[in-house]
Amino acid sequence: MPPGEGRATAEAVEAVFREERGLLLASLVRRFGDLDLAEEVTSEAIEAALRHWPAEGVPDRPGAWLLTTARRRAVDRLRRDQAYAARLAVLQADAERAEAAAPAADVAAIGELPDDRLQLFFTCAHPALAAEDRTALTLRCLAGLTTPEVARAFLVPTATMAQRIVRAKKKIREARIPFRVPGPDELPERLPGVLQVVYSVFTEGYAASSGPRLQRLDLAEEAIRLARILHRLLPAERESAGLLALLLLVHARRDARTGPAGEPVLLEDQDRGRWDRPMIEEGRALVVRALTGGPAGPYGVQAAIAALHDEAADVAATDWPQIVALYDVLLTLTPSPVVALNRAVAVAMRDGPGAGLALLDALAGEPRLRGYPPYVVARGDLLGRLGRAGEAAEAYRQALELAGTEPERAALRRKLGE
After folding, report:
1. Cα-flanking dihedrals φ and ψ of residue 211, to 5°?
2. How many CB atoms lie within 10 A of CB 186?
3. Which of 89, 103, 180, 275 to pair with 172, CA 20 to 30 A apart?
4. What digits encode the pLDDT tens for the residues 180-210?
5. Among 133, 105, 144, CA closest to 193
């Protein structure tokens, strides 16, 4: 095979694996009711494809090829291990009973599902699992990250993360958590947890908690991919539209957020010509969907704030009164010190640094803001704008001790030098 064709085949194989892995895993979990077995035979099917496809070419229906291969491997394993098969039979019987007991209206309300990934979303984000275990399991199963990659995202050793993932799978198995989409009566309670998992993945990608880079674009893009799947599978859920809108509107600024050396570039200094306009337009359309048809949810409100930033020609032209008003709404929906911090910064842009600093100082006793770098940096910036250079320098020194990434530390050292 000529070298160019080999490269094209390798790229095609990688694209297929990336697109099909989550769907393949979800289909196998639905069929056999066991995450461990599904992961193992998925890996074996991919290994088989890596052996055959480069020489034989990618099949016309690569997903079907992988699924058939993985199912055969699973059946072979079950035939060899009767105890394993017996345990899976119990799980499958539980699932069938739950499905038979579900009212027909539940299925009609949710609609025909294009694939099984939605069920896997809700299995990984089940409220019986600890919050960190939910996110870790989603990254591992739906985003397709390896255990070491998930460990890096959480800043923990690989062995620790492996234990978390094993613990989550064990909980699913022992608690017999069903592999299904919740009915309409359960969905309002369960959906926020699923959305939070995806948002947590994006947050780590948008602002890495440690390491040599300010952003982890791979994680941010994985979160957007997951949010797209979730929105496509639950198009009637306005908060799924709101979450996708928020991620797109924020990620659209990715190229302008760092300078040539990877240093952070503040919003007011960013070259807005480098923002991704098609992504912004897609996000704005989703904001309209998220805010239409009833009271707004927290992701829809945050997306509306992001849209106002993206629509403005510059910081001075930004509709700061509207942004403050949206933060007021957000505080009623999800009251938190971090939302209050962001509102204080917006008030500073609307009413001046003195007004913003007074609000920040009122938050000084909040435990969640102690040791939170954005809070300390915001105080330093406002103190600097007020001409209180000594106090600003002290705030920047404190932030320097707290900063997690090297680009952040370099930017703070530069501020201290100034």
Report:
1. 115, -175
2. 14
3. 103
4. 777 777 777 788 888 988 898 898 788 876 6
5. 133
CB-CB contact of 146 with 43 (8 Å): no
The neighbour count for residue 266, using CB atoms within 10 Å, is 10
Q: Specify the higher pLDDT residue, 320 or 126.
A: 320
Rounded-to-integer distance, Cα 307 and Cα 354, Å = 26
- Find out whether 281 and 310 touch, Cβ atoms under 8 Å: no
- How many CA atoms, within 13 angstroms, populate the side-chain half-sphere of residue 380? 21
Residue 50 identity: L
Give the position of tokens 């404190």.
398
CA-nearest of 254, 251, 241, 346 to 301 is: 241
Provide the pLDDT confidence category of residue 116 given band limits of 50, 70 and 90. confident
Q: Which amino acid is at 226?
A: L
Specify whether the CB–CB gap between 310 and 253 falls below 8 A: yes
The Cα–Cα gap between 191 and 67 comes to: 28
Question: What are the phi and psi torsion angles at 157 (to 5°)?
Answer: -60, 155
Q: CA–CA separation, 376 vs 366, rounded Å?
A: 13
The C-alpha atoms of residue 341 and residue 361 are separated, in whole angstroms, by: 10
Q: Buried (b) or exposed (e) across 322-359, using 16+ Cβ within 10 A?
A: ebbebbeebeeeeeebebbbbbbbbbbbbeebeebbeb
**Residue 111 φ/ψ region, left for φ over 0, alpha for ψ in the -120 to 50 degree band, beta for the rest:** left
* CB neighbours of residue 305 within 10 Å: 23
What sign does the dihedral 228-234-236-237 (CA atoms) show? negative
Instruction: Take residue 372 and report the two structure tokens written for it.
Output: 């939170």
End-to-end CA separation in angstroms for the chain: 59
DSSP bridge pairs for 264: 258
